């Protein structure tokens, strides 16, 4: 009996130890894999947030992915002549390191969206939750593929998450641009049907993709392929409120402030915050995994005055400044979009009026202040002249860009470089819907009063005189107004101009190519002689200044399109990607091949240059 009791005690101890072992055998929540995550509704909601996180990387919209399209266009040039020089000159090779970043980070988005779209089909949840989760993943994957197709032309189309776990399907083959955009249209069509509108979504919809966002990007995708009739149907539905109620913000500047984010004008914007401490590990790692990493963007560090702390990489083309100056508002002021787009001194800004205007019902806020500093006129005072102290680049000059910076917000003394700006990047605004509707109406029926009315709604917001139909005898004339007056002034220095130049075929027509070449004239290191007295002695020195004069072939240093190589309106596929994936092929930029033949074979057209003067 004693021996039996001993055996029972030993057995009890062993059983107890085994039970303890089972209790300790728990899953580490920090070591989960895609095989054991995403099996509940709450986990899928987290996975959707992870998809949004990837559009805040440098290659998507936190810096490089946003800026490269701006310098590809004719409104912005690489004033540093360094970081973005190959992107600006459109002669980049497959060895260009920045060619990797948008590819890498947009495929981050695709990968995570594919994960959500695979898992969501097997999880029990309400129909509303299913639609919200699936719709957001479809939109974000479409956004990534729209970026990839418009940046790289032909790219692998990966839509099945299981492809990543099989070596035979891991290295996807290159798909044509049309195939990719067909998929974008297919996915956006479904997202438009299942996502809630901003009205229905309430607080949930603030900052998230809605059916309105999907409809807006559907119109963009269709117009990239010159499907004007189909795009016009979508745009008219947006205007009619089929996808939620949108309206222009009363103040144009509300589109560039943190205090007025996700407003009535915004169809979709990337949500940014600045709460990190900064630092190399936190900001510049490719996957941005530091727990203290900021969730801000670095567009300000590219755009703002270098003298105030930015890198001074980008400057606005003098063409854009002079375009603003050609027309004044009904109250006698310059177009207020100039104030919010460029950091310049304008004498009219010294008169702050309390008189209500159409543009600013609570008084006119425009003053000659940037980063809490007073901008002075050109007086010859080297310490106060804004042309010296608010340059995009201290060595090259250039007009600094105010959009997506704190320059006009009276918040900071200077620029804090890095991924630190918390201003949401509005990727699509209702004004884009209106101007695209005007473009489609003009392409299909124009010129018409309907097209003019769409344009005038945007102009009235900033108190510009209405356009008159009688001033535009042909569709070519009205297109010129839309493409090279209305859109540059409304969206100047924002992401999208480079893509517009491709869809309009400006790279495939000699007249249009010459036109954008002239738009992109710049002047390197313009200098001015300053005389001043110091310690009772007169001194003189030449300083680099901001040059605002209209540039021509005679007085410009050059154009950022002087070095354009055929086919390089797209970015090359990075050589390392080509070497790694045996099924990947290069695009027109890799091969220096002309896209004009294929462009016209599709039935696309280029409107000839029309002199509006």
Automatic annotation (TrEMBL):
Residue ranges occupied by any SusD-like N-terminal domain in the UniProt entry:
24-220
- What keywords are annotated for this sequence in UniProt? Cell outer membrane, Membrane, Signal
Where found?
Cell outer membrane
> Is Amino-acid biosynthesis given among the entry's keywords?
no
Could you say which residues form the signal peptide? 1-19
Where the record annotates domain RagB/SusD, the positions are 265-587
Q: Which family does it belong to?
A: Belongs to the SusD family.
What protein am I looking at?
A: RagB/SusD family nutrient uptake outer membrane protein
Q: Which organism is it from?
A: Carboxylicivirga linearis
